[in-house]
Request: fold
Amino acid sequence: MHHLGVAVENLDSALATYERLFGARVEHRATVEDQGVRAASVRIGESRVELLEPLGQDTPIGRFLAKRGPGMHHVAYEVTDLDTALAELTTAGADLIDERPRAGLFGLEVAFVHPDS
Reply:
């Protein structure tokens, strides 16, 4: 597992809470306009959590928060070859949100699989 993604309403508040409660250390911060998100990657021991604040209501994270409220948004698995992993998921019948890798936060390539798969 690479990280857990957590949707939050306010990134600065969430960072303060994670630092106070868990001793989280901020690794990266970024604003990605085309994804409509402000994010921070934090370390808690050997684990990594990605905190995601929407830049607006009509963004993927904004819609997630409106429907479900703050909380876990995704689990990210690290693979050696994302194209091969996507082909294997397709063969296995997974419903892919991203059929090809795309640029994610912090310089990573990502592809999302629908949670109902």
Notes: Residues 1-75 form a domain with the 2,3-Dihydroxybiphenyl 1,2-Dioxygenase; domain 1 fold (CATH 3.10.180.10). The first strand starts at residue 3 and ends at 7. The mean pLDDT is 95.
